[in-house]
């Protein structure tokens, strides 16, 4: 049985992952509206992945006899200025999620909740990959250029899901 403070922290993370899914879905919509079809597909798939992360936390809470509580989440921003802005915001968001996962893992280990710490290992590894992916996207866009052919190439690469492989 999880302690109440751990349940609250896991619930917050679950809802943060839910927000992440909505954020990437909104980014996908912006990309499609601005003719970045590859980026739109990329962010739509990423929204699905974030929902799977949410469900992983939901199932863990449920499996420990705790009731997952879906909280109210804010609507994500939709006022992006450019694909560069979208990618930079996504990268910053992933850094924020990494920080919260790190804090959660630290709390689990200092609370001697070893099963939860073990469960969180997957998220720690996943966040390393997420930050690497979005940093690579930002770097490639800056390298390729933020106009014309550079944007086209980055958009196409995102659609092919070949980034950071």
From TrEMBL:
SUPFAM superfamilies for the chain: Ferritin-like
Keywords associated with the record: Cytoplasm, Iron, Iron storage, Metal-binding, Oxidoreductase
Residue stretches making up the Ferritin-like diiron domain: 1-145
Q: Does the keyword Hydrolase apply?
A: no
**What PROSITE patterns has UniProt attached to this entry?**
FERRITIN_LIKE
Q: Does the keyword Magnesium apply?
A: no
Q: Name one GO cellular component term.
A: cytosol
Cite the InterPro entries for this sequence. Ferritin (IPR001519), Ferritin-like (IPR012347), Ferritin-like_diiron (IPR009040), Ferritin-like_SF (IPR009078), Ferritin_DPS_dom (IPR008331), Ferritin_prok (IPR041719)
E.C. number:
1.16.3.2
Query: Which major enzyme category is it?
Result: oxidoreductase
Question: Which family does the record assign?
Answer: Belongs to the ferritin family. Prokaryotic subfamily.
> How does the annotation summarize its subunit structure?
Homooligomer of 24 subunits that assemble into a spherical protein shell (12 +/- 1 nM diameter) that can sequester at least 2000 iron atoms.
> What function does the entry list?
Iron-storage protein.
**By what name is this protein known?**
Ferritin
Q: Which organism is it from?
A: Morganella morganii (Proteus morganii)
